[in-house]
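Problem 12. The chain below contains 282 residues. Write out its predicted structure in token notation.
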Amino acid sequence: MIGILLWSSLLFVALAAFTLAGPASRYFRIFLGRVEARIDEILGEMFMFSITPRMVTFLSGAFLAVCVFGPWLLFGSLLGGLIGAVVGGAVPIFIIWQMVKRRRSALETQLLDGLITLANGMRAGLNLGQAIDLIEQHGDKPLSQEFGLVNREVEHGTSIDVALDNAGRRLRSHNYRLLFAAMKTTRIRGGNMPETLDRLGESLREIIRLEEKVKAQTAQGRTSAIFMGVMPLVVLGIYYVIDHEGMSLLFTEWQGHLVLLVVLILNLWGFLWIRRVVSFDI
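Solution.
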């Protein structure tokens, strides 16, 4: 296994060197620049400033090389290499997407606590900036990080309305955009800010309750999609143990490659179809 990893890494380095030195280097660099720019945007959204986009790109490329050349060298199967390419390209994207999704879910969960802190702080005589600073000092991450960034922008001369607009675009959340719009409207037209935040909190609490109810009612469908996606791999592994020689034909003969390709496409289509059916946006 160590030899496979070593050869995969060497082949990846050789392929990268050939690509950079060849006529396709210009297009490769443009593509790589766009990928790293998107990775840098995601890392900035998650406040992971100690990790560079180039580091993520290199690790993803090394993992892709292992997934491609590992099955190819181990089983001598071109289809295994193609499947490995799909897996090696999808897994890093899936991991990053899950990290972003988890952070955004935490932000949605902490929103009501942030509203209560803002309302109570302003009832105690604090202005909006001081109430936001209260969340930064005593709130949990990642909510404290986002409101802390709003404070940093205001301290560097940005008006609080513009800082709130920037936060709304950065967070990409309907609930936070609604919060910031209500805060701006109350500031411009006047009104009781704590009372506005209380009414908004009641509305958001009802929205979150409905979302959780929908998630509970569609949990069985999402679980079925996961089982359907995993079960072919489990069955393949069981048959590979029972009939090693027969199952090896799937990886060595072109007819077996065709069968695996059809199974993969149908399984992926079914998984995405179920996920689409049970996905609701309130």
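Discussion. The radius of gyration is 25 Å. Students who got a different answer should revisit the alignment rule from Section 12.3.
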